[in-house]
Every structure is written in C-alpha cells, then in structure tokens.
Amino acid sequence: MPTRTTKWPLCLVLALLAPAFSSCDTIRTPGMESLRSAAASQSVNPGINEPYLQPNLDPEDWAQRFEVESREVFAAREAIADGLDLSPGMHVADVGAGTGLFVPLLASRVGTSGRVYAVDIVPAFVAHIDRRARAAGLDQVQARLCSEDSVDLPAASVDLVFVCDTYHHFEYPSATLASIHDALRDNGELVVLDFERIPGVSSDWILGHVRAGREVFSSEIEAAGFEFVEEITSAPLHDNYMLRFRKQSR
To answer: What is the rounded average pLDDT for all residues in the chain?
Structure first.
C-alpha cells in the first residue's frame, strides 16, 4: 500500500518554523551575503590608482602638481574649508588627503581640542603629511595609511569626512563608503567634492579620467546609508561640485 503523505497548510508550516527563525539574529537569503561581498570587492575602475602606488613616488613632485593656483580647489581652498562648517573640538577625516593641501586648513578650524585624520593609501603621502604637520606644530593631526577598500578608522570616531577630488579614485566605493559610514558618529556628515562630468561640456581629461557624474556618485553614496543634505555653493567652483550628505542609521 502506498504511503500517504500529509499535506500541511502553508500557514501552519510557517507557524511551526517561526520559533526557529526567531532564534536567529537575522534571516539571510542563501547566497545573498556572498553576492553583496563580491559586489563590494569588485573594482569599478581597475588601475585608477596605479600612478600613486609606484615605489619611487616623490611627494614633493606631486605637491607641485596639486598645490598650484591653476588647480581650482587650491585657488578656492579657504572657501572650501569654510564651507565644511567646522568648529573647535570636532574630529574630521580628510580621506584621500594626498600631499596634505587641506590638512592645515582643517586643523586651524577644529583647533587644538579637535582632531584631523589625514588618510591616504599612499605611504609616501602619509609620511609627507606627518612631516609637514610635525614641522608646523599641528599636534591634532594624525596621518594614517588606509587600504584601497577601507578608510581604516575606528568606529564612531569622526564628526565629518571630507573627500576632495578623490571619490572618483575609490576603486571599491561600496566597501569604502561602508567603512566611512562606520567611522562617522551618529548624524555625522560626508562632504564630497569632485569633478563635474558632463559630456559635451567637461574637458576631455575629465571625461576620460572620471568614471561618472554627480548623479551616479550621489546614488552610490545614498545606497550606502547616507541622506543628501545640500549642495555647498559658497566656494567659487566651476569644474567641481561640493555635496553634503548625512549618515543615516542602518
């Protein structure tokens, strides 16, 4: 005689399984975590940082390229720093600090009671910033080496993260943004300054070097748990834009 199979109503099956699911911290779809991990580890622009990772890189040579009046962000550096709305005692991170153009400007605004983390993936830049800070007596400055997919800052350690002409160099933006989100305190802010990329308007260099425009970058940032707050227009920028975002609780 064939074995009779009992058909259980779906609602009863779910009710019986509910206690087992409730004992888990989170119900995860099989394979979803690995898919997210793979996406976060996928380079969006392979090789974008190769020029900065050469063993013989000379920071003084790059300082001569970055810190010149012909560069828009250098010419507008005081207005840009003012637009961050910093105050004494704040902890701020300059992510992709490069040769340290903004480090003394940030340090002067947070004062000796504040903290400036100058973060970069280039060891020679980090050493260069540290030398400049020590020579200037900026004890509130910490130059820190980070990895290509994380800012490597302690959790809830900063009030604001500033990313100047560097977001398009984030090779792993999903992972890097997650680390920025973790490093920010509650209601902390992320300010991104980057190049306007508009086909038919922007220069050939920008179109070839910068992978996407502000709409794409903004959507990536918002998807990482940030809320758009405003475009900062107080600095006289033509080739760049400056956007403020606020951390949202996950």
So the answer is: 87
Residues 6+ apart with CB under 8 A from 118: 93, 94, 97, 100, 103, 126, 129, 133, 141, 142, 143, 144
Least confident of 21-30, 39-48, 143-152: 21-30
Kindly give, in sequence order, each residue whose CB lies less than 8 Å from that of residue 106, ignoring residues fewer than 6 positions away: 81, 84, 86, 92, 94, 116, 162
The widest CA-to-CA distance across the chain, in whole angstroms, is: 92
| Strand 141-145, strand 158-164: pairing | unpaired
Domains and their CATH numbers in the chain: 61-247 (3.40.50.150)
Q: Is 80 exceeded by the pLDDT of residue 98? A: yes
Q: Shortest CA distance to 185 belongs to which of 121, 247, 93?
A: 247
86 strand-pairing partners: none
The identity of residue 21, as a single letter, is F
Which is nearest to 159 in space by CA: 235, 113, 92?
A: 92
Residue 202 tokens, joined: 């922007």
Q: Name the residue with tokens 């605004």.
A: 109
Three-state DSSP state, 6: coil
